[in-house]
Design goal:
Helices cover 32% and strands 24% of the residues. The chain is an alpha+beta fold. The strands form four sheets. Strands 3-2-1-4 form a four-stranded antiparallel sheet. Helix 2 packs antiparallel against helix 3 (50-61) and helix 7 runs parallel beside helix 8. The chain starts with a helix and ends in a 12-residue tail after the last strand. The model is unreliable at 130-137, 160-167 and 222-226 (pLDDT under 50).
C-alpha cells in the first residue's frame, strides 16, 4: 500500500465529522469572497460550526490566487490535509460528514507514479513522479537505472528522446486503465466470476474484505443530474455499512450514521486495502448501471439454503 493511501486512510481515524472543501483558486478579486460565502453557507447548513469555518477560511484565503483547485479536509481543531491540484477541473464543493475523496482520487489517478528518462547524446536526466527530483546522469548511468525498472514495473516507465513532454501520457494511461478495468468487469460478470455490480452486492463484498478494486462514479446530484445523491449507512469500523440502518442497529449510541454512498464505499475500500478507481460518469452506464461495482480477490462464498 502506497504512502498516499496511508495518508488518505488517516482522514478516517476519528469518529467525528470532517469538512471537505474543493475551492477553485484561479478566480480572484471579489469573486473569491462571494464563492467563499457560498461555501460557508453550505457547511453551516450541514452542521459545521464557526470554529471549523474559521480554520478553513484561513487555509483557503491564504492560498488564493493560485493555480488549480485547493482541496482541504478539516475538523473543528485543525486542517487534516490540504492539497493543491494544478489544472484540476473538479467542481467546487463543501461537504460535512465522511471525507469526500472522489474528486481528489480522480485527479491523482490521472497522475500515476512513473519514471521519465530524458536522453540526448551527452547524457540525460531521470525524473521520478510523484515526490521525486530530477538528477543529471550520464547516458550509461541512465541505462543502468532505467532497464531494471522497466523489467520490474514496465507500466511505471516512459522514455522520451529529444525533449521532455512530461505528463502527456498520464491521462492516456488513466483512460487505458479504466478501459481495462471495465473490460475485466464485464468479462467476470458474464462468466459469474470475480465481479459484483450494484450498490448492494458491492457493499456486501466490501464488508467481507473481498474487494481488490472498487469502481465508482460520482454522485449524479453532483454532476448536473436531477436525481438526489445516493445514500448509505455506516458505523465506527470501515466494514460497518449497509443500504438501510436496520443491519447496523446494534452498534451503540450515535450509530449508525447516514452518508453518501460514494463516501461510505470509499472509506470501506481504503479500510480493507482495496484500490479505488473513479469512473467517468458519461461513459460507463452500460457496464456499471448504478455507478458502483467491484473486482474481487476471490469468489463469493456459497449461500446455503435455509432449513425450514
Amino acid at each position: 500500500m502506497s504512502l498516499r493511501t496511508w495518508v488518505l486512510r488517516d482522514l478516517y481515524a476519528g469518529t467525528g465529522s470532517v469538512a471537505s472543501v474543493y475551492f477553485d483558486l484561479r478566480a480572484g478579486g471579489d469573486q473569491v469572497f462571494t464563492r467563499w460565502h457560498a461555501v460557508v453557507e453550505d457547511l453551516s447548513r450541514q452542521g459545521a460550526g464557526r470554529g471549523l469555518v474559521g480554520v478553513l477560511r484561513a487555509g483557503v484565503l491564504g492560498t488564493v490566487p493560485g493555480r488549480g483547485v485547493l482541496v482541504m479536509f478539516a475538523t473543528d481543531c485543525r486542517i487534516l490535509l490540504g492539497v493543491v491540484m494544478p489544472e484540476a477541473s473538479a467542481p467546487e464543493r463543501a461537504r460535512y460528514g465522511l471525507p469526500h475523496l472522489l474528486p481528489l482520487l480522480a485527479w491523482l489517478q490521472g497522475r500515476p507514479a512513473h519514471v521519465v528518462a530524458l536522453l540526448d547524446r551527452t547524457g540525460g536526466a531521470i525524473v521520478v513522479h510523484p515526490g521525486g527530483a530530477a538528477a543529471d546522469r550520464g547516458a550509461e548511468q541512465v541505462v543502468e537505472v532505467v532497464v531494471p525498472l522497466q523489467r520490474q514495473r514496465p507500466s511505471l516507465l516512459s522514455i522520451t528522446a529529444g525533449g521532455p513532454r512530461l505528463g502527456e501520457g498520464s491521462c492516456q494511461a488513466s483512460a487505458g486503465r479504466t478501459a481495462l478495468l471495465l473490460a475485466a468487469l464485464d468479462e467476470e460478470r458474464r462468466q459469474g466470476g470475480l465481479a459484483v455490480v450494484g450498490a448492494g452486492g458491492t457493499l456486501d463484498a466490501l464488508a467481507r474484505g473481498r474487494v481488490r478494486t472498487l469502481l465508482l462514479s460520482d454522485d449524479v446530484a453532483d454532476t448536473g443530474g436531477a436525481a438526489p445523491a445516493r445514500m448509505a449507512w455506516y458505523g465506527p469500523a470501515p466494514a460497518d455499512h449497509a443500504l438501510e440502518p436496520e443491519p447496523l442497529s446494534g452498534l451503540g449510541a450515535g450509530w449508525p450514521r447516514r452518508g453518501r454512498l460514494v463516501d461510505v464505499a470509499t472509506r470501506a475500500a481504503l479500510g480493507c486495502g482495496a484500490e479505488v478507481h473513479v469512473l467517468p460518469t458519461d461513459a460507463t452506464r452500460e457496464v456499471v448501471p448504478e455507478g458502483i461495482a467491484a473486482l474481487c480477490r476471490d469468489p463469493a462464498p456459497p449461500r446455503w439454503p435455509s432449513s425450514t
